[in-house]
Amino acid sequence: MEDSNWIYMLESMQSIRYFSRVMIQRATKEYQMPAEHLELLSRLAVSNEKMTPMTLSKLMKVNKTIISRIIDKLNNIGYLIKTKDENDKRSYFVSITELGEEQLKNIYKHYLGPIYELRRKLGEKDFSQLMACIEEANVKMNDHVEGI
Question: Which residues form the HTH marR-type domain (predicted)?
Fold first, then answer.
């Protein structure tokens, strides 16, 4: 071990685990959605442009066949709609429905609720400092992992 004060390091690890457990919401059945489905809906919700399956495929770096399957599933649930492209009859645009937006909002409220609470309790300055330290640690640990 690099540090002879292993008890301090053990306590630090326990604090990090506790913090993570408190801050990260577990998925419940009501809020479970595959990450790619969530990303696709999120991209539709924030986009000001019409989106085609090809556009989504490129943005998400996911095979167009997979995007088409996701679109079909979300369309069947009622979270998005497909509109034919009048200029190209073989293509269509995808847009999020009110139901899709509501589900997306509920999922993000569920997962982000503890983070908003942390920011409220810490205050903007301390929250920003915490996030800066976490981001710096992520970069350094990523560099460490890539060096192995």
Answer: 1-139
Residue 121: HSE in the Cβ half-sphere, 13 Å Cα cutoff: 8
Maximum C-alpha span of the chain: 70
Eight-class DSSP state of 51 = B
Segments of the chain scoring below 70 in pLDDT? 1-3, 27, 144-148
pTM for the whole structure: 0.67
Which amino acid does the sequence have at 50?
K
What does the DSSP 8-state code read for residue 61?
T
Strands annotated E in 9-148? 80-84, 92-96
Say which residues have a Cβ less than 8 Å from residue 117's Cβ, sequence separation at least 6: none
Domains recognised in the chain with CATH numbers? 32-147 (1.10.10.10)
φ, ψ (nearest 5 deg) of residue 92? -150, 160
* Residue at token pair 């009859």: 89
